[in-house]
Amino acid sequence: KKRIVSGVQPTGSIHLGNYLGAIKNWIALQNSYETLFFIVDLHAITLPYDTQQLSKATRETAAIYLACGIDNSKGDENVGVALLTYPVLMASDILLYQSDFVPVGEDQKQHLELTRELAERVNYLYGGRKWKKLGGRGGAIFKVPEPLIPPAGARVMSLTDGLSKMSKSAPSDQSRINLLDPKDRIEDDIRFLEYNLTLTCRLPLINILEIDVIHVYKRKLVSDVVSFLSLTFAILEFDNLERPECNNLLSIYQLISGKTKGEVAEECQNMNWGTFKPLLTDALIEHLHPIQVRYEEIMSDSAYLDKVLADGAAKAADIADATLNNVYQAMGFLRR
Ligand code: TYM
Q: Cβ(178) to ligand 1 under 6 A?
């Protein structure tokens, strides 16, 4: 079986972007591949951090993986390397475990490119004739991994700004939906979204009259532009570059409901925000509820969680040891 490797940083809450861009796809792939999903704790120490909070967040992230439905190999990344610059650390995560594919969101693409270059370089320098002379198998030391970026969901945008991606570090928690958000929080998050309506009215002789409607609500979809006399306002549509929030919310609905883009486009083509918002809210709550219930169960069974992490770490360490042995030998180091 080909192997896939991926991970999430144990920082902040895991949000819909992490889920739709990565974790949900891991679950779809886990039966076809050998899998290693880790919690990349070493990546979380590049900024000042609280040590107790880090181990707590690592366990919580592991519980989220399990609650989302990851049910075979898992591991806590626990590789004894010093603090390296971030992209190189990520490359070593991947190369150490001889991964064929790496399912990630679009923002990781450039890191994967660096990873591939590093693998090719090491294979070129040490994997050829020199390696054979040493009695090794010859050929590649590292597998050159390929990214698996999902066709939809690879870039989930902020709820309130369709031009920036949903992110753990955005200051407003209301710009994202976290997997563990309770029902009423999700209801409010969607209900209080309001678009920044610009009515454009074209009349003979008067060129363009723009009326900015006063914002009543707390949060705005910043750029929902709607034309007036053509009577297209408030109709929901995918792929209108002037309405990125509309596209994002429809895409989230598509992924979370499991429908196709065509089905959603048809279902929502005559809807306004007032009809769509409860639909999206219900779909999110329905999808996240079983994950949240399972998360609580897992968190209350610490022996189970510890075992999963220990088994995963042992398996990951075996693979990493074999790779490191090869690398040491190919590069002429004595194994320490
Ligand atoms: P991290 O923790 O920032 O994000 C984890 C995964 O979630 C994806 N993601 C998104 N996908 C769609 N829309 C979004 N708004 C969004 N935000 C985040 C990310 O693409 C990622 O797949 N460097 C990585 C962690 C890492 C890793 C690795 C991944 C370290 N070593 C080895 C794969 C293999 C990171 O910081 O992800």
A: no
Triad 323, 329, 330: Cα angle to 5°? 85
What residue segments make up the domains of the chain, in order of their start?
3-156+301-331, 181-297
Q: What's the 23 CA to ligand 1 centre distance in angstroms?
A: 9
3-156+301-331 — its CATH code?
A: 3.40.50.620
35 lines ligand 1 (CB under 6 A): no
Strand extents, DSSP E, the chain: 3-8, 34-39, 75-76, 101-103, 146-148, 193-195, 198-201, 209-212, 219-221, 225-227
Q: Do domains 3-156+301-331 and 181-297 have the same CATH topology?
A: no
Can you read off the two tokens belonging to residue 262? 């065509």
How far is Cα 262 from Cα 240, in angstroms, rounded to an integer? 15
Q: What beta strand segments (E) does 149-195 contain?
A: 193-195
**For residue 80, what is the enclosing H or E element?**
none
pLDDT tens for the 336 residues of the chain, in order: 899 999 998 887 899 999 999 999 999 999 999 999 989 888 787 777 888 888 899 899 999 999 999 988 444 443 333 333 567 788 988 999 999 999 999 999 999 999 999 998 888 888 765 555 555 444 688 999 999 999 999 999 999 888 999 998 888 888 999 999 999 999 988 988 876 655 555 555 555 544 443 333 346 676 565 555 545 455 788 998 888 888 999 999 999 999 999 999 999 988 888 889 999 999 999 999 999 999 999 999 999 999 999 999 999 999 999 999 888 888 777 776
Domain 181-297: which topology? Answer: Tyrosyl-Transfer RNA Synthetase (1.10.240)
User: Quick check: CB of 180 below 6 Å from ligand 1?
Assistant: no
- Whole-model pTM over 0.90: no
Ligand 1 center to 234 CA (angstroms) = 33
ipTM of this complex: 0.98
